[in-house]
Amino acid sequence: MHRLVQRAIEEFIIANYGSDVWTKVAAASRHRMTSDDETHGQKVMHAASGELRKPYVEMWEDLGAWLARLEPMRRLLRFSGRDFKDFLQNIADLPDYTRMVVPDLKMPGMTVVTEDEVLRILVRRRDPEWIHAIAGVVRVMADDYGALGLIWVEPDGIAVQVSDDCFAQARDFHLGAGILREGLA
After folding, report:
1. What is the pTM of this model?
2. In whole angstroms, what is the distance from residue 128 CA to residue 101 CA?
């Protein structure tokens, strides 16, 4: 597993559950940051799942949600669409954008299809870890855009039915606004 993902898992667990929990999880999973084992992140999340008594896939969804709440990541994700539906239509480009920044991260490809008012994000590699992490991102972005909808995980991806794209006030987002304010100060 990519070291960036390993580091994200470590930071997620420490930020949400504390360094004592991380110490136990690292010991239980025999965590080594230098591990190139493709299943290493899964081992760490299984250990965390056991330690926290939370379902394994829920841990991955929480990781995706946590990542999407980080302001730099949130800003990159918000740049993908002017509203939630637009964001969903463009989410298939996320692996390409990710490869521009981290070329060796093996994020699975995605395809977006719409059937009967339900938008499906089909994940080409049916890894439950990726599917649930992406579902966490989608849930947070729905809130960020102020959209109301049903979001559920299927074996091959995520299904989204948007009931109201303007249900609540969207979080503030201005491209470059922070840079302008800092430059004027």
Report:
1. 0.86
2. 24
Backbone angles phi, psi at 53, to 5 degrees: 55, 45
Residue 167 C-beta-side C-alpha neighbours within 13 Å:
15
Residue by residue, what is the 3-state secondary structure of the chain? CCHHHHHHHHHHHHHHHCHHHHHHHHHHHCCCCCCCCCCHHHHHHHHHHHHHCCCHHHHHHHHHHHHHHCHHHHHHHHCCCCCHHHHHHHHHHHHHHHHHHCCCCCCCCEEEEEECCEEEEEECCCCHHHHHHHHHHHHHHHHHHCCEEEEEEECCEEEEEEEECCCCCCCCCCCCHHHHHHHHC
Distance between CA atoms of 63 and 6, rounded to whole angstroms?
A: 11
More confident residue, 5 or 58: 58
Q: Which long-range contacts (CB under 8 A, 24 or more apart) does 17-22 make?
A: 17/48, 17/52, 21/48, 21/51, 21/52
Closest CA to 42 of 55, 53, 56: 56
Q: What are phi and psi of 150, to 5 degrees?
A: -100, 135
- What are the pLDDT digits (tens) for 79-129? 888 889 999 999 999 888 888 878 888 888 999 999 888 999 999 887 899
